[in-house]
Design a protein that fits this description.
Order of helices and strands: HHH
Strand content: under 5%
Number of helices: 3
Structural class: mainly alpha
Distance between the termini: 56 Å
Number of domains: 2
Radius of gyration: 25 Å
Largest sheet: none
């Protein structure tokens, strides 16, 4: 999460720096406003981190394997009952 905070900080600084004709004090205010706007937007999007995504991906792969094993067991039981 610290990576994201640093990235947002950097991006908000770059956005504020790209506004022509503002004083340094105004630039700092713009950077704070851009940072707040970016944070609110990303929170609203309900994004997950790469780490959280990879964990969910691993769990899904594990569950798929278990499901395949259960499907084979059911098929074996059905063949034995027939």
């Amino acid at each position: 999460m610290k990576e994201n905070a640093a990235w947002i900080e950097e991006l908000s600084g770059e956005l504020a720096g790209g506004v022509p004709g503002v004083t340094e004090g105004m630039r700092a205010d713009l950077a704070r406003n851009f940072k707040a706007l970016l944070q609110a937007t990303f929170r609203r999007l309900d994004l997950v981190t790469r780490e959280e995504f990879e964990i969910q991906q691993q769990l899904l792969a594990q569950l798929r394997g278990e499901l395949s094993a259960l499907e084979r067991s059911v098929a074996d039981l059905e063949r034995g009952a027939a």
